[in-house]
Design goal:
Length: 180
């Protein structure tokens, strides 16, 4: 590790490691989401149009997109999966600085997601504005596009904050010699 950091620079090494981890985590979840939707759509229709002929839509769960634009719905869910995966992998990488226990590192995104949901319920936040509900596609703010933009902005802010904390902590530990 020290040799790689010496060759690339401490800060550059930390940034590259963070970016690669976050992108790979996001792509894994996005590909899994896309593959699941593609395989399910081969066996089950996305929507039964006979049932929805006279129905008014509330756009909950991106229902309008799912009914009239199934490909857009799949892209929305895949994009939200990308955002979730990026946040989860960034969180796990940040936790890995403090512990070497693989169970703690693997479980940290799930515990973090549970904590966000639990604190949101304790604070009596409306489900429409909870980031955990937005990222799983259970909440739509104005439209699917607006929701995706909000999810993107919140994801980028979270990733930036976690990335800065990760980079500073690892850089400090590399400088002090506590990481070998």
């Amino acid at each position: 590790l020290i040799y790689i950091a010496a060759r690339e620079g401490r800060r550059g090494y930390c940034i590259i490691k963070y970016i690669v981890t976050v992108l790979s985590g996001g792509v894994v979840i996005a590909l899994g989401t896309a593959l699941t939707l593609a395989l399910l759509s081969m066996s089950f229709p996305m929507v039964d149009m006979a049932e929805y002929q006279e129905t008014a839509f509330s756009d909950v769960f991106h229902e309008w997109s799912a009914v009239y634009h199934p490909a857009a719905y799949c892209m929305i869910q895949t994009g939200l999966g990308l955002f979730r995966g990026m946040i989860w992998s960034g969180m796990a990488l940040f936790v890995s600085i403090f512990t070497e226990d693989p169970f703690v590192v693997i479980a940290s995104p799930y515990v973090g997601n549970y904590a966000v949901g639990h604190f949101s319920r304790l604070l009596h936040l409306n489900n429409e504005y909870r980031i955990d509900m937005i990222l799983i596609g259970r909440s739509v703010i104005h439209s699917s596009l607006c929701t995706m933009i909000i999810a993107f902005i919140v994801t980028m802010i979270l990733l930036f904050v976690i990335g800065v904390l990760f980079t500073n902590k690892v850089d400090r530990r590399l400088r002090d010699g506590t990481i070998t």
